[in-house]
Amino acid sequence: MSAADATGIPGREPSPPWSSRDVQFDHYGGQRLPFGCTGASGIIQHFVELSGSDAGRAFDVLDASGGYGSACLGAGSEVIAAALSDGVRNAGYVTDEIASSERSLLLERLFAPGGLFADRFPAADYRVSGRNSGSEGMELALRLVLESRFDHRRLRAAPGTGERDVVLAFEGAWHGWTGGLLPLMNRRHYRIGLPAIAPEPFGFRTDHIPFGDLDAAREWFDRNGERVLAVVVEPVQGDAGILVPEPGYLRELAALAKDSGALLVADEVLTFAKTGQFFGMTDESGPIPTDITVIGKSLGMGALSTSMVIARRELGARPTGTVSTSDLRPLTCAVIRAGLDHIVSEGLVERSGKLGAELGRLLHEQVVAKFPDLYVEARGVGVMHGVELTDLAAARIGKLRTSMIRNGVYVEFMSGAGRRSRGLRYVNATMRVAPPLVATADDIETIVARLAAGSHALLQETP
Ligand SMILES: Cc1ncc(COP(=O)(O)O)c(C=O)c1O
């Protein structure tokens, strides 16, 4: 029996057989983190060392990741527990063939006049479909884009649409894992060896330009004009390293798309409820209109994996073209409604906007400025912050991760936008600091203090 098999938390028997984690695909090339989690409450996670002389040591970490940015209410929310329990007992499971009262209540709450999202997505102009994950939502969005050129009756390109075959995406883009999305991803590593969508008929080409560079966007639209079918954008690029565009960029991009007759797709899977607003496609003048918006992650309140595709009504796919077993399941709708009502009544999104500004300041002062050998800069908004690593830290990323965890804070590391063209500088891997919405001002201070302690400890280690 290995040390890992023997570990567990005293008083919490039976110890789980940790070695069974080998059954799950290893995405980290044998470098998985040597920790187990035995439970969590709020943003505190109970960890245990799985190997080495400390195997079996139990300790707590503050969560500054939200499980890839999905657990906006942390762990153990009573509101979500009640909604799940009541939903399982009472909500039923009818599919979209039958109207469900839970589904209707949610759609009313979000899209009817005065609804939470009605200022940007009034029910008269938009429709919605539910999916199980962000990837599936983005896949449906892409499908709606492609089918917008399609004459469903004649099964060929609709008149005047056949020439539109170029989709604009961005360097560092991350939109999900499923097959159709591969061309949009600016990641050769994930694409190679897998088929691309055939060019004819109804195929498309994807171009990637630097994110946040308006001149590059203008020049690209000048060159591609009426061939542009769609623009697919993350309002804040997540996996690329938490890249926040300059004010005005997203609105101008939306205008360029509109003027060229292209559809604008906002991938808000990650940004939903995390930028100090519900939607990242927002500026001082209010909502920035989109043709399709996909939200996910936080939408499932950390309890369910779900996403929503909100699309202009005229983007109707062929009948049954968007059907899915779990499209807006009553239970899912009950959880979303309870969670959103709670977030609104507690003012959590607004609060996260204010705390986020403080988080950014503290990260700069106590992490970046104090450890220039490890960090280049901190950037972010709301509860989405990134601290970019120097070459030195990027080369020791595994040790940095474990050092942070052993110093009591859990953060994730994004791969970064890699080598960027057009004179934009290289973006290294980036530490993502994205605590759940329920994190308090004290939590934020403690998270930053522990990040500083973890950085200090790494520098004390012999390389
Ligand atoms: C911007 C963005 N889009 C889509 C996805 C895919 O979502 P999921 O992992 O739920 O399929 C992610 C996930 O990381 C994401 O960050």
Automatic annotation (TrEMBL):
Highest taxon above the source species: Bacteria
Pfam families for the chain: Aminotran_3
Start and end residues of each stretch annotated as Disordered: 1-20
Required cofactor(s): pyridoxal 5'-phosphate
GO molecular function: identical protein binding; pyridoxal phosphate binding; transaminase activity
Similarity-based family: Belongs to the class-III pyridoxal-phosphate-dependent aminotransferase family.
Protein name, UniProt field: Acetylornithine aminotransferase
Species of provenance: Streptomyces cadmiisoli
Lineage: Bacteria, Bacillati, Actinomycetota, Actinomycetes, Kitasatosporales
